[in-house]
Amino acid sequence: MAQHGGRQHPPAGLRGRRGRPLHLPRGDPDRSPEWPTIRPHRLAVGLYNVKEGRLVRDGRLELDVDGERTEIAELAGEKKPDLLLLNDDDLAYAKIRLDDASLLVAIDFLSAIESPLARSLVWGSAWDSTRDAETAARDYVQLVLRNIGAETESTTLRTVLAQVQTTATMYVAPERRESTLEEVGDAFWTLANEAAPGSDAQFQFLKAFAAVAHTPTQLDNVQAVLDEKVALDGLDIDTDLGWELLIALAAGGRAGREQIEATLASDNTATGRQSAAHAFAALPTASDKEAAWKSIVEETNASNLIVRSTGLGFLRASDPSLLEPFVARYFGSLTTIWENRSYAIASGIITGFYPASLANQALVDATRAWLEAHPETPALRRLIIENLAGVERALRVQARDAA
């Protein structure tokens, strides 16, 4: 069972005691002093209870939410359900929250909700509250690992797998990052093996596994799949998937430049060259990161897609300290890049080589210092401010996870 600390402010869920009316707070959590409008919403409230291993909707109320609080007199005196879902059936465009007890139930039983739409609302609410540092990142990891294996919607599956990777690499407290990444990787491998043969889920779980594999055992499994010594029933290792497995081996130090070059020789296509650039940049030594940096930042002949692929590999580092020497170089090169490259190339470098995966205060301080020293060029500043916002968010979420 996951543990929870106190919230920073009341959750946007139903609260109250038996015998008293329950209330909905305002339906617009993003309202700020600059945008004080309270928007009315028509939404439904779903009441879900665990029955024989399933999470079943026992009741549903539809109502208008308008103003700071909306009383739901119909629920006065009723027993609180195991999980209470605001905006059930997705009637309104609104940001919702689960109360603490509902989140605990979701961690154990989300996969037992039959409705894909209801599941997606819970997934979305849990992700939003994690990103907003209202719930612990470790709880989101457990929600995913305990329930994603039963998810049937391909888009939901792909989105949640990407989100839990972000959570494991940037949002959990730094002291538990390594153990979380190992747990996530092991879980993805198990899920890939347990998925229906030839299914989209099997394919997505294997791709997600390759994206985080870094321990000796995990890399052994990547190598075995690529060499077809371990077969996942129904899975076709096509060229694109082969590249993803090779990139994982490159990032883990199990494949070098010769193997990447040999693979490129057999797939000397536009996508093959992009994948090779990704793999070269993912190699895990200081000299490899230096080569990736020079090939894009100091040389000027790379295409937009090669810039993007190289940036993906450059930022992939099991040891984020490999990126620390590039912080000062990044900020020192910004003006030159902005003034001498096309907008597409410049923005690709500025966003793709910002070492966000460091996710630490030193990066925040360096970013703020550059912004203070460069008040000109609004378009460039906007890109840097967006980069900064992502890292500041990560630090807030890390602090909440450590609490």
Structure description:
By secondary structure, the protein is mostly helical. Among the domains are: 1-114, no CATH class; 238-301, no CATH class. It is built from 16 helices and five strands. The strands form two sheets. The chain has a three-stranded antiparallel beta sheet. A two-stranded antiparallel ribbon has the order 1-4. It starts with 21 loop residues before the first strand and ends with a helix.
In short:
The protein is 55% helix and 9% strand. The protein is mostly helical and 403 residues long. Helix 6 packs parallel to helix 8 (239-251), helix 7 runs antiparallel to helix 8 and helix 10 crosses helix 11 (286-298).
Provide the residue-averaged pLDDT.
91
Largest sheet: 3 strands, antiparallel
The ordered string of helix (H) and strand (E) elements is EEEEEHHHHHHHHHHHHHHHH
In which order are the strands of the major sheet placed?
Answer: 3-2-5
Poorly predicted regions are: 1-23, 25-29
Oligomer: single chain
In which range does the helix fraction lie?
40-55%
List keywords for this structure.
two-stranded antiparallel sheet, 3-stranded antiparallel beta sheet, mainly alpha, 403 residues, single chain
